[in-house]
Amino acid sequence: MTQFKYVGESERRIDGLDKITGAARFVDDLEFGPNLLHAEVVESPYAHALIKRIDTSEAEKVPGVVRIVTGKDFPYRFGLYMQDRYIFPTDRVRFVGEQVAAVIARDTQTAKRAAKRVKVVYKELEPVLDLEKALKSDAVLVHLDLASYPRCPWFFPEAGTNIAHRRKTRKGDLEKGFQEADVIFEDTYTVPRYAHCAIEPHAIVGLYDLSGRLTLWSASQSPYTQRHVFAQALAPLGISHKDIRVVTPYVGGGFGGKAGVSMEIIGVALAAMVKGSPVKLRWSRAQEFYNTYQRQGVIARIKMGVKKDGTLTAIEHTLHWDAGAYVEYGANVVNAVGLSATGPYRIPNVKIDSVCVYTNLPPGGPYRGFGYSEFHFGLESHITAIAKKIGMDPVEFRKRNAIREGDTLAYGAKMNPSGLHEAIDKVAREIGWGKKEVSKDPHKSIGKGFACFWKAPAMPPNAASAAFTKFNEDGSVNISVSGMEIGQGYLTVMAQIAAEVLTVPPAKIRIEPPDTDRNAYEWQTVGSHVTWGCGNAVKAAALDMREKMFEVVHRVHGFAKDDLYLENEKVRCRTHPDFELAFKDFVISGIQTPKGNFIGGPILGSGIFMPEFTSALSDPETSQGGHPNVHYTVGAAAVTLEVDRETGKMKVLKATLAVDAGKAVNPDLVNSQIMGGMVQGLATVLHEDMRYDLKGKLLNANFTDYKIPTSMDIPKEVVPIIVEVPQPDGPYGARGVGEHTMIPAAAMVANAVEDAVGLRLKALPITAERMALALSGISFEDVKGAYMGFCFAGKADAYAFRTGGKKQK
Amino acid sequence: MRKQITLRLNDEPRTLEVQPNDILLDVLREKLGVKSPKIGCERGDCGACTILLDGKTVRSCLILAIEADGHEVMTVEGLSRGSLTPVQQALLEHNSFQCGFCAPGVVLAATELLGDNPHPTEQDVKEALSGNLCRCTGYQSIIEAIIDVQEKASKSL
């Protein structure tokens, strides 16, 4: 096995000192001088209404107001995969909190005061707040002009309905699969909406300078994608890509919430209206909750067939997603799930319908896990339940059906190398699977729960990465890339990859957050793909630099390039062991010859990566024929959970998670992803509980009422486990792990609850309140009062899973 | 109606005029150029704006600038002028933070804790950090670093 010097080492974070000293700058920390303007938006109080009139006259009289902007100024749509969002809606609002106008003023207080004086006259419409009603053939429509929206070729909106997209995947013969089964088991699972809760709120500063140059300082995971979407949206104003520059300093947490474009488009539009003055828009905590993206709610029906020996024969998985008012990104979540909702199992006969439904709740979008956390809750709950039905141990059942390299995926492509079996074994051993634990407290029960997981990056087939590298006079290196450091340690990992090729220690490498004018292209930092995709580009750029160094040495000294190698920041030669040339002696100035002239010059590198083997083209009725996913990262997790049968309070005594990183470029950072992802995942089941009133208004848009974990709420013990089955096309075998670590959390807890107290809870979250009710035999739906967690207020078992509309099959 | 106030900010006397209703966090960031206290929730929930006021952690989004008149305010900028403090060094070595947005507040909360109690238990650390929300790390890497400070200190005795 090849020994690496920097790859595989727990190097100190490149950004550590910036963050520990307060030197790290986030968008809101940047200085723009006394001419900086501030903006405040005017928000819809209704989930669905027609805008009859907007009167800005009173607001304009407030001293210090510079400009008021409405949909009349910007009647444009935008979107990443489908242009269904409006910068400012012109005729109707579609969720509570949607921006209808914005006030630009000299200071924030003036902007806020004036925004309250903008009078908007609405005609309230019936909102779409129930999935069953949304899918009726005579449903109120959220978007009347759906068919006209430009979109990517793998979205299939159904005109005249609320269905924004439906992903259908068909493999084998479903009926035959169920006929072969000895046991067929069906159940329904619900997952409500969740909020990302990055501690840094979204913020953007825009400056449209007097020369027509538009610069945006944006808290974003996606500088290049933002520039592209901005350019598309502003094309009517004659502003194109070369005129737009997106600068993205450190980001205070993303989790998908700062992917693509959400509130930033407003900042762009406002900047365009006040030429010559920078203008800042920063979201409040409440706006973070209701006007960025939310994780979508879903109701899922799973029908599964299994033989007595534990072999899975068929799965029918139907998912109806509450995707909200605009789904330009959320529909891709629905799409990703529609391709992968078998989970990491070999199942010969598959029918998946993943249906993206417009509703009048805030827009759904990407959230760490991209739909996989949502469907794994049902799937992994169901797997444990069906294993028990045939009297088989749930871990044994999983091992029997776990996917292997070369297996045919639901959409026909082949499974990549994977360490799933190893992960299952290691997790089972770590959690002491099969050993029942008993609490000393007679009021408490202890249970164990197990879950597997998988996830692929959801990316278009042309999601490219690029890197520039250059040497400095002292032999140190600058790397220029446009992936985002959102906390995962991306900058450090890129430095380690370059270090490995160049033999330059990471401490001598500078790599910083990007600026689209200067840094190489990156599609965006989502899907846990940058270690893999951008890592390949950085490796290629470093190899390019190495090749150029060899070329210079070859020209001057005549050594064959094949005999040259790098060692400790020097070029060495296998046939001339005495030869060594330090980088610092030639990488800028070249090599002097006996004649006194210099050969060579500044050594620069460039590298790109394009996943050329992927394709999103497939049969829309079956999803067969394409290769939409590059690869899957897999793993397993388990929990030991204590349940207080009197209060319903639950305590995680131990959790463990194994993820197949391919190659952990920095094991400490992989472990950090496991620890952080585990706590974020546990929060979605044990703590967080998003509540809307029956008119679609979010009731708990703050950290007092929407509880994210504090340091007091973490498990007693989390054991991270790294599995390394190399990804053949990954840099040093690496693949991404960032999202995966929260995916199994909800299901493993539900499985542990059943093990502890014998109750199968099929709706998230499983808070102490709901646990206590369940233990008392009370149905939560009967007592919860007038609120909902997503667009379905009734009892899940009564949900019909019908879709109306024209294309019903 | 403006009022003149004087406070010691990171060991330097600063005098400025503020409105009576100016929030200390905004004044620190916009008028005094100190950017490490962050705006996260503006209602005292998240702890990103934590400062030390006369050595005690305070949510600077919850107090008025005039309340700091005559008092000492310390932010991470003031801690970091010389070499790193032991708690900063430990947090750095443990790769404790991810996005780092909560880091200034956490560093100050840990500084206060270790000042009051040089040998905290894990439970003490968890309680001291319970007002500083972190969405990235799951806290364990931060807790371990703070425990490590006292272990290193006792080894060097």
- List the strand order in the largest sheet of chain B: 2-1-5-3-4
Bin the helical content of chain B: 25-40%
Measured between the Cα atoms of the first and last residue of chain A, the distance is 54 Å
Looking at CATH, the homologous superfamily of the largest domain in chain B is Beta-grasp domain
Number of domains of chain B: 2
Secondary-structure-based class of chain A equals: alpha+beta
Rg of chain A computed from alpha carbons, rounded to a whole number of angstroms = 27 Å
Second CATH tier, the architecture of the largest domain in chain A: 2-Layer Sandwich
Globally, the shape of chain A reads globular
> Biggest interface and its residues per chain?
A-B, 57 and 50 residues
Explain what you see.
The complex is a heterodimer of chains A (809) and B (157). Chain A has 809 residues and is an alpha+beta fold. Helix content of chain A is 24%, strand content 23%. Chain A folds into three domains: 16-23 and 464-609, Aldehyde Oxidoreductase, domain 4, CATH 3.30.365; 32-125 and 202-282, Aldehyde oxidase/xanthine dehydrogenase, a/b hammerhead (Aldehyde Oxidoreductase, domain 3), CATH 3.90.1170; 164-195 and 294-459 and 617-798, Aldehyde Oxidoreductase, domain 4 (2-Layer Sandwich), CATH 3.30.365.10. The longest helix of chain A has 28 residues, at 530-557. The radius of gyration of chain A is 27 Å and the shape is globular. In chain B, a hairpin with a 2-residue loop joins strand 1 and strand 2. In chain B, helix 3 packs across helix 6 (140-155) and helix 4 packs across helix 5 (122-129). The longest helix of chain B is centred in the C-terminal third of the chain and has 16 residues, at 140-155. The radius of gyration of chain B is 16 Å and the shape is globular. The model of chain B has no long low-confidence stretch (mean pLDDT 95). The chains are: A alpha+beta (809), B alpha+beta (157). Chains A and B meet through helix 1 and helix 15 of A and helix 3, helix 4, helix 5 and helix 6 of B.
